[in-house]
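step: validate -> pass
step: tokenize input -> pass
step: predict -> running
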Amino acid sequence: MLKLGVIGFGIRIRSIVKEIIDSGKAELVAVADNNIGNAKNNIIETLGDIKVNYYTDARKMLTNEKLDGVCIGTRCDSHTEYALLCSEYDIPMFLEKP
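step: predict -> pass
step: emit ->
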């Protein structure tokens, strides 16, 4: 099973993550978000009360976790920063538009 991380687990990314998890091919193992409480609530509403490692720092998540892919669901003005960060770790990513 693929291990998935998310940077910025907000309203827009959760339906995409749900589709990936519901495929049965991946599990959500880590989330980096500067509002952990909000991220936890979104995860519980979307996927139930699952075990996830939470980080407030995306670099720490990428360093500490062995991820097969990352979904980036942050504000548009931080997409480039996090895409470049994921590329430093050579981790495939899904980046929300725009």
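step: describe -> The longest strand covers residues 26-32.
step: cleanup -> pass
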